[in-house]
Amino acid sequence: MADYQIRRCERQLEGGIHPETQKALSTTDSCIFVGDPKRLVFPIHFSGGGPGEALVAVADIVSQGTPIIKCQSGITHVASRAGKVIDIIDHEIAHPAATKSASIIIEPSGLEDQNYLDPLVWPFDADTLRNRAIEAGILGLGGAGFPSFKKWSEGMQTLIINGAECQPYLTTDDTLMRIDTHSMIRGASMLSQSLDIKTIIIGIEDNKPEVLEAIESALKESCSDCFFDVVLLDTKYPSGSERHLVWLTLGIEVPTGSHAVESGVIVHNPGTLAALSRAIDGKPITDRIVTLTGEALAAPQNIVVPIGAPISHLIEATDTNPESLTSITIGGPMMGYSVTNFTAGITKTTNCLLAREVDIPPESPCIRCGACATVCPVRLQPQQMVFALKGGSLDRAIHEGLTDCIECAACNAVCPSHIPLAEWFRLGRFEARDKANDQRLAAKARERFEARNMRLKRISLEKEAKRAVRQAKTADALEKARKARKESA
């Protein structure tokens, strides 16, 4: 049995809200596997891990697990089903950018043809585990899609399993922690032991009694040498944001502009750790759990579906006609984004499809009530930031804390004027990143220009010095010739 304790969190989240959760919609029925779609769509540049390149060509036959995309970060994405590559074309994608990307289209064959990795045998070191994560395509499955191996540096003291899942409607992590608890615990233990981490914290909101029971049962059966600190959080949004979860569970405040790893803490989603456990056994990520929910769906539930399956295929799994919906939200009601083209394939970061009819009231002028500032968990002044952005003053918005915004949209939920504050901040942060990137590029260009000028100046001085040496030698030779003529005369 693993050594563990269960305790109530002693800290309170500042700000935040208590939205209607509606989680029971998708947990009434058990999680099920759905059949394969007719086509699978894999965006080459938007599957997670950054821009990529195709490793296959049209007409190639692939197995389940065959590498098909290699990203600049090193992450490899594999075919989720055996089949044939029938096309590589620009295709709609499930992404906030609402654009198209070069995509690999695979037609599943229905064959049980697998191309898995060799299992790792314990003990193995951190470098071996990092390489396996790259080969198996392990990403943050909570929605960010950050390559997990980049967090696994030496000197980490704590691993936090983020099981809060504070987003309304979402039950993906809830489901995984109940039905695949042992994989989550094993993945966390193997990662911690390879990095010499002694303490694993599991943070869950107190509205998940079934999860708590499953975790306690799994820990009693585990042989892990790590200490598990199970922390029950108050059910409040957004307690599951990385920065706030670190503070709630450890009392460590992550500095502005920093990440948890810089404080010696690794934060991972339960699904990421379960996927790591399977990767250790040789299985790359080919499927994931997705929450299908919302009042517009006939039968909301959680399903296990192959990566690349079109959104329409998932909608049909709920006995709902995709043509009856005009749009669907990916990622939940608070931080999600809307898509209207249901031919786009899901990616590893697609954790929820939400279908509901919402009447959006027209925007009214700000009445300066301060409600948005009251609920902001980062203690910002959203009204000041949005005034700056609407006035075209990005620098002022950044001064007000724009880059600290976690885009939780709690401000949207309480604004009586129905101002889309979070959308303004999301666009502003994109603009700020672009501006910072332009400044970096300009600085590099300036450095190259100055380096070139210095190089040219050095070359010019070297040439001048060589010329002076040649002139001195020539003058010396002429002088010797004159002396020789005088002596001969």
Could you describe the 3D structure shown?
It is a single chain. This protein has 489 residues and is an alpha/beta fold. Among the domains are: 3-35 and 133-288, Rossmann fold (3-Layer(aba) Sandwich); 367-458, no CATH class. The protein contains 13 helices and 18 strands. The strands form 4 sheets. A 6-stranded mixed β-sheet has the order 2-15-14-18-16-17. Helix 3 (172-179) runs parallel beside helix 5 (209-221), helix 4 packs across helix 7 and helix 10 (382-390) packs across helix 13. The chain is globular, with a radius of gyration of 29 Å. The model has no long low-confidence stretch (mean pLDDT 92).
Helix vs. strand class = alpha/beta
Q: If strands are numbered along the chain, what order do they take across the biggest sheet?
A: 2-15-14-18-16-17
The overall pLDDT average reads 92
What proportion of the residues form beta strands (DSSP E)?
A: 15-25%
Q: Compute the gyration radius: what is it?
A: 29 Å
In short:
The protein has 489 residues and is of the alpha/beta class. Helices cover 35% and strands 18% of the residues.
Key phrases:
single chain; 489 residues; alpha/beta; Rossmann fold; five-stranded parallel sheet; 18 strands; globular
